[in-house]
Design brief:
There is one protein chain. The chain is mainly α. It is built from 4 helices and 2 strands. It has helices at residues 11-28, 33-46, 72-76, 82-92; strands at residues 60-61, 66-67. A two-stranded antiparallel ribbon has the order 1-2. A hairpin with a 4-residue loop joins strand 1 (60-61) and strand 2 (66-67). Helix 2 (33-46) crosses helix 4 (82-92). It starts with 10 loop residues before the first helix and ends with a helix.
């Protein structure tokens, strides 16, 4: 699998690729938990958020330390502008 790097410079070019990917997912299995999770993450990032922690990780609290796991934006979209997620949500008809 090839990872698509989205940045301030190429987000408009990357947008059709990502839209087609998620349209394919919606056609094949529209109600999957993964797709519901992605919608929430992208809506959060469209509003300037971090998308929450990467799936499968937890924040661990104790009296002495707080360990923070990477967020979706840090892990997969560190250079993507909010506009990328806004446009993506709009094109897919997802709330943001």
């Amino acid at each position: 699998m090839v990872k698509l790097l989205v940045s301030e410079d190429n987000w408009r070019d990357a947008l059709p690729i990502v839209v087609m990917h998620y349209r394919d997912m919606e056609m094949m299995d529209p109600g999957t938990p993964l797709l519901r999770s992605v919608r929430k993450q992208y809506a959060d990032m469209a509003r300037g958020g971090d998308g929450g922690p990467v799936s499968g990780t937890r924040n661990t609290k104790s009296e002495r330390y707080f360990r923070r796991y990477p967020t979706v934006r840090q892990s997969s979209y560190p250079d993507a502008p909010n506009e990328f997620f806004q446009e993506l949500c709009d094109l897919l008809g997802w709330p943001r």
